[in-house]
Amino acid sequence: HLSTLRHLPVEAIFDADGKQMDFIPNIRVIRSQRKTIKLMFKKYAYSKTNEHDTTTYWHCRSRRNGRPACKARFSTKKLKNGSYKVYLTQPEHNHPPKKRRL
Fold first, then answer.
1. Cβ atoms within 10 A of the Cβ of 50, count?
2. Domains in the chain: how many in total?
3. What does the UniProt keyword field contain (predicted)?
4. How do residues 15-33 score in pLDDT, each as one tens digit?
């Protein structure tokens, strides 16, 4: 279960065109103050939006006053061996990462 992990065990990552990328990302699992699970990827925080079978959908948490919400998204697919495939469905952010202290 994700809540017991510090890092998502990633087997492969795919870009928006579905091509496998040649690196394995470091995706941190963090717990928010409200005890929900979030993922940190490249200094951006993502919240879970939906789950279907073994696939979980995540979106960027940025909601800035007076500006459009960020549309950055990715999905994770849990494999039988317990690791994940990551699909960067919408990798572009419309803002810089927040400076966070964890």
1. 10
2. 1
3. Metal-binding, Zinc, Zinc-finger
4. 999 999 998 889 999 988 8
Residue 101 lies in a domain: no
| C-beta separation of 46 from 61 below 8 A | yes
Domain enclosing residue 85, as ranges: 10-90
pLDDT tens-digit readout, 44-63 = 999 999 999 999 999 998 87
92: which residues sit within 8 A by CB, 6+ positions away? 71, 72
> CA 65 to CA 55: how far, in whole Å?
31
Residue 30, domain CATH: 2.20.25
Give the tokens for residue 33. Answer: 């103050």
Q: Are 43 and 25 spatial neighbours (Cβ–Cβ below 8 Å)?
A: no
Burial class (CB in 10 A: 0-12, 13-18, 19+), 28: middle
Q: Is 73 in contact with 58 (CB distance < 8 Å)?
A: yes
10-14/84-90 β-pairing: parallel
